[in-house]
Amino acid sequence: MELRQLRYFMAVAEEMNITRAAERLHMTQPPLSRQLQAIEDELGLPLFVRGARPLKLTDAGRVFYAQAKRVVDQADELGPLTRRLAQLSERIVIGFVPSTLYGALPDVIRAFRERQPDVELSLIEMFTLEQLGALKGGRIDVGFGRLRFDDDQLVREALIEEKLIAAGAGG
Q1: I want to staple 29 with a disulfide (CB 3.0 to 4.6 A). Which of 22, 62, 87, 99 is the partner?
Q2: Which residues contact 98 (CB under 8 A, 6 or more apart)?
């Protein structure tokens, strides 16, 4: 059975009329009827109640429709999903606070570029709290900041610990 046949069956099941389904599919009614018959022959059972106006699905037809819809929906998502995954593997968007440029971030970026020269890195300056929303919203892939936070939706890893020194006027 081919994906094309599933689409034909779904159009007839949704229209409950072979002529309207054929128009929707930009084809004539006889080839559509032959395709429906081929599906039923392959399955060995009827999917439509013959002679009913409008057409009606048999119990098997209702089950077949639900499964066909799931398969067609998944097939339709394959292209967009593959393109999204390809974009993720080709480009990484990094959020950072400016002060990280004086710390380990340049070394991290340099090491990453040596290991993954084909991946484009895009850097966006933003406060740590802005990064949290951007990570959740998918606008950045990773963030570098200085604030500690607890958020069950995000994974946090401390890269370095810095000492803070206070200075004052002597006197």
Answers
A1: 22
A2: 125
Provide DSSP, 50-78: TT-SS-EE-HHHHHHHHHHHHHHHHHHHH
Q: Length of the chain, please? A: 171
Pairing of strands 56-57, 48-49: antiparallel
Residues contacting 10, CB < 8 A, separation 6+: 65, 68, 69, 72
The one-character DSSP state at 156 is -
Task: Name the 3-class secondary structure at 96.
Answer: strand
Domains and CATH numbers, the chain: 3-85 (1.10.10.10), 87-144 (3.40.190.10)
Q: Which residues contact 94 (CB under 8 A, 6 or more apart)?
A: 109, 121, 122, 123, 124, 140, 141, 142, 143, 144
Q: pTM of the full predicted structure? A: 0.51
- What percent of the chain shows pLDDT beyond 90? 41
